[in-house]
Amino acid sequence: MKENLIKEMKESFSTFEKAREDYLLQRGIQRKIIVKLLKGDDYSVTDGGTAGSGLKNYKSNFNKLDPPHDLRHHKWVEAEKDGIGFLISLNPVDTDPGSGNIHHLYDRIGVQAYIEENTEKSMRTSMMITPLSLPMDEEKCEELLKIVERLRKTLVYHRDTEI
């Protein structure tokens, strides 16, 4: 019995590690697709280095996590156009109104638009969870651009018509 369990664990470990690395790679590719989409529509996008990806060796405040946790599966895109900032999340947070439970909706697209500084609280309360999910295709890319453009135009209008 124990030998079978050890064999199963070894096989599962290898398969799991490969699946995790493949998933991280594909989420990174999906992020790059969104970056190129926005850049192609004249948005400035924060890119390069570790932009838009969680840390591999996250330790939390005061180094509470030992060993560190890999947060590279957290992906997002930060963009700006006409003074309107955008946070596009590939794993938005949803709070269940019935139970109050918090859920990370992996592979779902969330969009937040803002004029002033973005805060953790505003990310949790004003993120629009779209019907779009990964992987992106041409139709989803077009819809994402429509959503972002509608938000941009609305905020530009409100900003420019304030008395």
Outline the structure in words.
The chain has one domain. The protein is built from three helices and seven strands, in the order H-E-E-E-E-E-E-H-E-H. It has helices at residues 2-39, 120-126, 138-160; strands at 44-45, 76-81, 84-89, 93-95, 102-104, 108-114, 128-133. The protein has a five-stranded antiparallel β-sheet, covered by helices on one side. It has a two-stranded antiparallel sheet with strand order 4-5. A hairpin with a 2-residue loop joins strand 2 and strand 3. It is elongated and about 70 Å long. The N and C termini lie far apart (76 Å).
Furnish the topology, listing elements before pairings.
Layout: H1 2-39, E1 44-45, E2 76-81, E3 84-89, E4 93-95, E5 102-104, E6 108-114, H2 120-126, E7 128-133, H3 138-160
Antiparallel strand pairs: 1-2, 2-3, 3-6, 4-5, 6-7
In terms of per-residue confidence, which ranges show pLDDT below 50 for 5 or more consecutive residues? none
Number of strands: 7
- Considering DSSP H and I runs of 4 or more, what fraction of the residues is helical? 40-55%
Broad shape = elongated
Gyration radius, in Å: 19 Å
Largest sheet: 5 strands, antiparallel
Count of DSSP helices? 3
User: How would you write the strand order of the largest sheet?
Assistant: 1-2-3-6-7
Strand content: 15-25%
Distance between the termini: 76 Å
Structural class: alpha+beta
The total number of structural domains is 1
> pLDDT average, as an integer?
90
Order of helices and strands: HEEEEEEHEH
